[in-house]
């Protein structure tokens, strides 16, 4: 039950910058998700909050207390490691019990708490086994149970669901969210999975190459991306990004021609989400490149000039390839980015 | 070697080549060179028998050497143990030597001494090595300075034994040091008391072999998954608690192997006894190896000595086997 402030955190490994100048305010009881490609510094950020890594520069404040120089042990933070980090010599029961023992929680409470945590992750039947005798997904759940068995100030979860099948992942997702709301523990959660990020997060932090790209609610991240990286990273399939030239309120690229605000000028990138495209019309002209029915929608890929544009078409839409097709972009949902990839906003 | 189907004269292209017809356009040399490459230029003519025997042939010199210096003397000892040997006269006695040994009080005393001195020495060096490893393994300097810790092991055992002999008995260095610290008055007669004499052997062995265990334990600790230690830290464990609950159990197989190796070595402890105490006072420091030596080379009961060493070998193998098996078995569950 604590807020977390990262103040200009930086982590360097020799000359390599793992995390650069990161400032972030995480509110008490907030569920914050770190999202970004592999190697962008998510785990490093977590480890600095946990106290396992000392920032090269900057300050970390947890619950109003500067903890930068406080040992990991005394920060009262629970973490689920990407590599599980279970104790191989102990049974799952003893694994989950370890933090209770070490934190001096009365032995009479242990059993009930352990069983509650194990049931939450559906691991009740495996308590007597050693970690070596569990599958990857079961180990991951054991690690999760070990983290939630006590009530820490902060939960840190590093891709805790990455090894589970789709069904279990969905049910665990709901469970984690429910538990977090119930325990009211500030949570930082790392994932690669956009759906996980969108469904769990109060706010999402998008990172790339050690730097924050955008911080916002799932809605903001989705409908108001700050730059081309965020736009291209979020959504599945992600936003179409089309390089072209804007002049006198008109954007032109090979096979594409749409109206744009007058202040958008020069070399720009047009962004449009697949669901804001519809079949038929004049915004873009091209050839059908591929049709992918998925059941509830059909994804259509159109080759306009040299650019492939993804379109979310009606469920029943079918077409042969190499047939000419026109696309309309919803003019209310066009995004423009400058040649640095930054969003061009308003009539500034 | 004749290769009729790819000689110059053959105008036909190589038969298994799918591009056959086109090859008639290629100059003849081209075909002739290309064909053997395609089949592999090295003909494999080694007989199946030779191919199977080949690895053994490669190993043969080493095996012969090893067998000559270990198996032959071993077999010879077993054979000799069935005789009463007085120089060149061998008299068959069957298990006579063995039954005599089992009733020999000196044999049992030597066995007891070996077990006692060995157990104390081994426990001490294991405990010291573990303690040092616990304090040292996180230190990056230790990696670079490992070799320093190996120094005592690198000295010649007999030289080490003489140094200790000087320090304890002849040179009275230890007595002098203890005297200056005000711990004792005058000079201690290290060979005059059973326990002091045993202590000198223990100190010498611990000094020389603790580094061996230390190096192995440090390596084992450094090889452990660091995330597990970090997880324990976040779970609220202190460093000693982490070591006791997490690191030490994970080191168990390594500890067992290292201690077993050391144990085998200690049961055959000879040099220090030979140089420093010669079994005195009154046989209180006579180990098995020294007993065997005394029987064989002082009293020339070669058959008797052989029988003792065979018993010793059996005992060592059985103990080592049980310890290792049990440790690894329970470690797997
Ligand atoms: N100890 C280290 N020494 C040098 N570089 C490191 C070290 N630890 C991490 N890095 C580098 O820092 C960057 C960020 O690593 P980090 O583990 O935070 O990535 P991540 O975002 O968690 O990736 P993933 O999603 O694959 O887990 C990587 O490029 C990595 O190579
Ligand atoms: Mg990571």
Characterization of the model:
The complex is a heterodimer of chains A (348) and B (333). Chain A is an alpha+beta fold. Chain A has two domains: 4-228, P-loop containing nucleotide triphosphate hydrolases (Rossmann fold, 3-Layer(aba) Sandwich), CATH 3.40.50; 241-337, OB fold (Dihydrolipoamide Acetyltransferase, E2P), CATH 2.40.50.140. Helices cover 24% and strands 36% of the residues of chain A. Chain A contains eight helices and 19 strands. Chain A has helices at 42-50, 92-102, 107-120, 136-148, 166-183, 194-200, 218-223, 228-233; strands at 4-13, 16-26, 31-35, 57-62, 65-66, 77-80, 154-158, 186-191, 203-208, 211-216, 240-247, 250-253, 256-259, 266-272, 277-293, 298-304, 307-313, 324-329, 335-337. Chain A has a six-stranded mixed β-sheet, with helices on both faces. In chain A, strands 13-12-11-14-19 form a five-stranded antiparallel β-sheet. The model of chain A has no long low-confidence stretch (mean pLDDT 92). With 333 residues, chain B is mainly α. Chain B has a domain at 105-300: MetI-like (MetI-like fold), CATH 1.10.3720.10. In chain B, β1 (83-86) and β2 (89-92) form a beta hairpin. In chain B, α10 runs antiparallel to α13. Mean pLDDT of chain B is 82; it is low at 1-36. The A-B interface holds A 50, 52, 71-73, 75, 77-79, 81, 83, 85-90, 98-99, 102-103, 130, 146 and B 225, 227-228, 230-238, 241, 245-246, 249-250, 252, 333. The structure holds adenosine-5'-triphosphate and magnesium ion. Adenosine-5'-triphosphate is lined by residues 13, 16, 18, 36, 38-44, 82 of chain A.
